[in-house]
């Protein structure tokens, strides 16, 4: 079995969608979820879906090698960020070359960078009267939202859209495409 490790900080609706997609997969499975937020809704989702969950704090992530060692011990084929909000430390990036991917809820390089996540992105897209937005799936490097782009999908916006409907349209794209891209990357890399 090829294994995926998921990292999440918040609600975890993408985590749930990815877990369900691979539940019935013959060769790929989600081995566990890691979170940096002890109050995240993703914790309840993992309990319900019976997927192992690990919590870590800032120190275990970037001041010691605790999380790096945990990741190495898990031997994942792919580390998948799904609404994970901390920058990945250099030692983790270097230990997993082209093995860490992220999804961003906009068409990078627009609306990326530190502080641009979740609802803030959709509000900015709305404020700028954009005619389209979408998702970007990309490799993770040491900078926020700057790794090589793997794929982008677009959705059209109209005058009736609000930040909430924009979020809904983007989430729909995420649920549709993220698991498929994850599967493709893992299968392509043997
Ligand atoms: C998703 O829309 C994801 O693209 C975004 O956070 C949301 C998490 O939702 N990620 C970022 O903004 C990263 N910069 P979820 O917890 O319900 O999956």
What does this structure look like?
With 190 residues, the protein is an alpha/beta fold. The chain has helices at residues 13-22, 41-49, 58-63, 66-74, 90-95, 118-127, 163-188; strands at 2-8, 28-35, 53-55, 78-81, 100-104, 132-139, 149-156. Strand 1, helix 1 (13-22) and strand 2 form a beta-alpha-beta unit. The mean pLDDT is 97. It binds glycinamide ribonucleotide. The site of glycinamide ribonucleotide has 16 residues, from helix 1, strand 5, helix 6 and helix 7. Glycinamide ribonucleotide is lined by residues 8, 10-14, 82-83, 103-105, 117-118, 121, 171, 174.
What composes the largest sheet? 7 strands, mixed
CATH topology name of the domain at 2-105 and 136-152 and 178-188: Rossmann fold
- What is the helix fraction of residues, given as a range? 40-55%
Chain-averaged pLDDT: 97
Give the CATH H-level superfamily of the domain at 2-105 and 136-152 and 178-188. Formyl transferase, N-terminal domain
What is the CATH C-level name of the domain at 2-105 and 136-152 and 178-188?
Answer: Alpha Beta
| Proportion in β-strands | 15-25%
Low-confidence parts: none
Q: Count the strands?
A: 7
Ligands (ions, cofactors included)? glycinamide ribonucleotide
CA distance, first residue to last residue: 11 Å
Tell me the series of helices and strands, N- to C-terminal.
EHEHEHHEHEHEEH
What gross morphology would you assign? globular
Q: What's the gyration radius in Å?
A: 16 Å
């Amino acid at each position: 079995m090829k294994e995926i490790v998921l990292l999440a900080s918040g609600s975890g609706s993408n985590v749930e969608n990815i877990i369900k997609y691979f539940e019935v997969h013959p060769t790929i499975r989600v081995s566990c979820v890691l979170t940096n937020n002890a109050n995240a809704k993703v914790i309840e989702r993992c309990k319900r879906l019976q997927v192992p969950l690990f919590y870590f704090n800032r120190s275990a992530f970037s001041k010691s090698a605790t999380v790096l060692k945990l990741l190495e011990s898990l031997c994942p084929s792919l580390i998948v960020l799904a609404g994970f909000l901390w920058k990945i430390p250099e030692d983790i990036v270097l230990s997993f070359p082209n093995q860490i991917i992220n999804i961003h809820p906009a068409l990078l390089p627009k609306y990326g960078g530190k502080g641009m996540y979740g609802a803030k992105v959709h509000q900015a897209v709305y404020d700028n009267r954009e005619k389209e937005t979408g998702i970007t799936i990309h490799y993770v490097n040491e900078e926020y939202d700057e790794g090589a782009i793997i794929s982008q999908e677009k959705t059209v916006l109209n005058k009736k859209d609000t930040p909430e409907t924009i979020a809904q349209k983007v989430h729909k794209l995420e649920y549709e495409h993220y698991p498929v891209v994850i599967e493709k990357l893992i299968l392509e890399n043997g």
